[in-house]
Design a protein that fits this description.
heterodimer, A: alpha/beta, seven-stranded mixed sheet, five-stranded mixed sheet, 35% helix, B: alpha/beta, Rossmann fold, five-stranded parallel sheet, 7 strands
Chain lengths: 357, 410
């Protein structure tokens, strides 16, 4: 197994961990921005409520005070304006890292993202480039209703020229965000908002757990990167491969524990470029695959994953690839937990797929 | 109680349609030299009237009069005339090349040559334009090679953009010309971002945003005005009102607002309206706004009142939606003829020199065309490699594109 798969779990000795601070995902993202701004004057951070207040989720808290208003500032409520100006800044030579308050609010910026940021290098044959990061909180689990719960990752992975990242824990969030800011191309950075303050395995009726108790909340203070395009195996197993990202990684681990099915859980981390090698190696070994995501089913990213597994692992498959996802409906409010693909739904799928012939 | 009169739905209509008589009686044109020239640090609220007037320098006899007469030497004006003539000749040759099947598409500037040619001269060499598809004068007046422009139009093996872009969607960072999208209005807000970056870095360079009358209706235009206003970005916001957005007359985008310049007023952005067919006035107004931006006084909105004398593109036929001879009735005349008359009146030019120059420019453009065609045209000769499809999507070729490139066998 290549060593990068163990980049987080058990990569440092116990004594190193003891020396490391523990961070929530919010603190890890803030630390990534802080480290990046300190290292490079060209990094600027802005968005709605991002400056003085430090963002509605507090990810940019203290940055304006530390780096001044020309490096971290409030923007008008115009996602088109935020992304459009950031593209101009990137073309100038800055490295803007902008925040859209919710992924659900990105649609006014979509033309700028799809037709402009994604294609600038291509259409100008490298004359102009767009090193830009667009951060946005994604996913549900906070009773946000249809306008604060969406998972629009497939709307980005479908676009040539974008990279799309979804971290599942504080350690990766920091390393991936620094890598995204240092990347020469536009990166969509989707932050699962239900993971901001603690890991969440889908058991909404149980007490909330804090990141402090989780191994991956041990985050170095300084600079490090987690490479884009590399997945990580969170749990090795023989019976079935679960492909997940963001919040669903924790759901997968919980369902595996509860069902006792010896599943391999892969945290994709970056959806595009995708680490196909890791996926293929795992499915070739297990012969079964479940794709898990919170977004709607039809034309979701799971459809792409399923197609790739079929193309590359057909002769290893012992059962049809299964998808466990959100329903093809808008994200409901009161019925949030009927919509959310939690451990019960995945558990049933796990039991079904290991019995399938 | 009687019931009120039923509501009625309002759709603006142009003054005349095909078969009708051209009618520009609604375009009120002040006398040349009659509009005041405020200092560049004027407060926006003190010049609100300028958003409803038209700054003009050249009068009917071709004399330059009034406070906006710019400090351009006769040599500089002759150079300006040559730029406009070159653009017009270039357009004619490329339009013909498209008709001959050498490329898929072309867009002419006929009647609007002064706007981009004069603006480029007013701008500094390191400033950045975010143009639309009808500002090639920004390249020609900045000595961008005609051969490179043609190679782009032909999408041939020498195309600087490797065959990826529709004809005329040029890009040249070196010449202060941002990559043209072809998606309308997106560049307007990007220009504001570029200008914000320049201010953040305490640079001296400024940006120029470009948009047509029709696409001011896009939300990007309004976002650009908000951001430019909020951050006092060093940007010149140029609206080229050529009266027609394909078949849609400018009233559909303008709505109840008197002018496009007036759009700036609600944002506290000073707004000027200028005779876009008057090279001297266009240069003077551009210079004023550029100086203002350079002095950190913030953005200026300029509306260039002009007329698209030709078709929107090679895919368009204006006789289907406007009177056939409307362009001849346009009250602000032709920018090339007007500058030529001015130079003749000033004793710096003659009909003979003009004819001679026309012939000389035609020879230059034809020579460039021959050179460009030696590298191929869209359907014959050298063309970009299929390999180029996959390059520059990202800085580094990701694995999935490597696999797809292998499939195509290059």
């Amino acid at each position: 197994m290549p060593s990068y798969r163990r980049i987080c779990v058990g990569s440092a000795s116990r004594s190193e961990f003891d020396a490391m601070p523990r961070m929530t995902m919010i603190e890890a993202i803030r630390s990534a921005l802080d480290v990046s701004m300190a290292r490079n004057d060209d990094v600027v951070v802005y968005g709605e409520d991002v400056g003085f207040f430090g963002g509605v989720f507090r990810c940019t808290q203290g940055l304006q005070q530390k780096y001044g208003v020309s490096r971290c500032f409030d923007a008008p409520i115009s996602e088109c304006g935020i992304v459009g100006t950031a593209i101009g800044m990137a073309a100038y030579g800055l490295r803007p890292c902008v925040e859209l308050q919710f992924a659900d609010y990105m649609y006014p910026a979509y033309d700028q993202i799809v037709s402009e940021a994604a294609r600038l290098r291509y259409r100008s044959a490298g004359d102009f480039t767009c090193p830009l990061v667009i951060r946005m909180p994604t996913g549900g689990g906070i009773f946000g209703g249809q306008t604060h719960s969406q998972s629009p990752e497939a709307l980005f992975t479908h676009v040539a020229g974008l990279k799309t990242v979804v971290p599942s824990n504080p350690y990766d969030a920091k390393g991936l965000l620094i890598a995204a800011i240092e990347d020469p191309d536009p990166v969509i950075f989707l932050e699962p908002k239900r993971l901001y303050n603690g890991p969440f395995d889908g058991h909404h009726d149980r007490p909330v757990t804090a990141w402090a108790k989780h191994e991956l909340s041990e985050v170095p203070e300084g600079h490090y990167t987690t490479p884009l395009g590399k997945a990580v195996t969170r749990r090795a197993g023989e019976a079935v491969t679960i492909l997940a990202y963001g919040t669903m990684v924790h759901v997968a681990l919980a369902a595996v524990e509860e069902t006792g099915v010896d599943a391999e859980v892969i945290d994709l981390r970056t959806l595009l470029p995708l680490d196909l090698e890791t996926i293929v190696a795992s499915v070739a070994k297990t012969g079964r695959c479940i794709v898990l995501h919170e977004a709607t089913l039809t034309s979701g990213f799971g459809a792409e994953l399923t197609a790739l597994v079929q193309e590359h692992c057909f002769y290893h498959l012992e059962a049809p690839v299964m998808r466990v996802t959100g329903w093809d409906t808008p994200y409901p409010h009161a019925q949030e937990w009927d919509y959310f693909p939690g451990p019960a739904r995945l558990g049933q799928a796990l039991r079904d797929i290991v019995e399938a012939r | 109680m009687t019931s009120p009169t039923p509501l009625h739905f309002h759709v603006p209509e142009p003054a005349s349609r095909p078969g009708g008589k051209p009618d520009f009686s609604g375009v009120s044109i002040p006398k040349a030299g009659s509009v005041r020239r405020p200092p560049v640090d004027v407060l926006p609220e003190e010049i609100r009237d300028l958003a409803y007037s038209i700054i003009r320098v050249l009068n009917h006899e071709g004399r330059a009069i009034g406070p906006w007469v710019p400090d351009l030497s006769q040599d500089e004006l002759v150079a300006g005339l040559r730029h406009m003539m070159t653009l017009r000749t270039f357009d004619a040759r490329m339009q013909m090349a498209q008709r001959q099947g050498k490329t898929s598409f072309y867009m002419q500037h006929t009647g609007e040559e002064a706007v981009s040619c004069a603006f480029r001269i007013a701008l500094g060499p390191d400033d950045m334009n975010f143009p639309t598809y009808r500002q090639a004068g920004l390249l020609i007046a900045h000595d961008y090679p005609l051969v490179d422009m043609m190679c782009q139009i032909y999408s041939n093996e020498h195309d600087p953009l490797k065959g990826r872009q529709l004809p005329v969607m040029y890009s040249s960072k070196k010449h202060g010309f941002f990559s043209i999208s072809g998606n309308l209005a997106t560049q307007f807000v990007q220009a504001v971002g570029w200008a914000m970056a320049s201010a953040i870095k305490r640079d001296n360079r400024i940006a120029a945003a470009w948009i047509g009358d029709g696409s001011t209706a896009e939300s990007d235009f309004h976002a650009a005005l908000v951001f430019a206003s909020t951050y006092k970005a060093p940007v010149v916001l140029n609206v080229v009102n050529n009266q027609w957005a394909i078949s849609t007359f400018q009233g559909i985008a303008r709505g109840g607002s008197g002018t496009f310049a007036a759009r700036g007023l609600g944002f506290g952005i000073p707004a000027l309206r200028v005779d876009g067919n008057d090279y001297l006035a266009t240069y003077a107004v551009a210079k004023w706004a550029i100086e203002r931006a350079r002095l950190n006084l913030g953005p200026t909105l300029i509306e260039y009142v002009t007329y698209r004398a030709g078709a929107h593109s090679t895919s368009d036929d204006p006789s289907a939606y406007r009177p056939k001879h409307e362009s001849e009735e346009w009250p602000l005349g032709d920018p090339v003829i007007r500058l030529k008359q001015h130079l003749i009146a000033a004793g710096a030019w003659s009909e003979e020199r003009h004819k001679q120059t026309e012939a000389e420019i035609l020879a230059t453009v034809i020579a460039a065309q021959k050179e460009a065609e030696a590298f191929g045209t869209l359907h014959s000769g050298g063309k970009p490699s299929a390999r180029d499809i996959f390059e520059d999507v990202y800085a580094e070729l990701p694995p999935h594109l490597r696999r797809q490139r292998q499939q195509i066998g290059v």
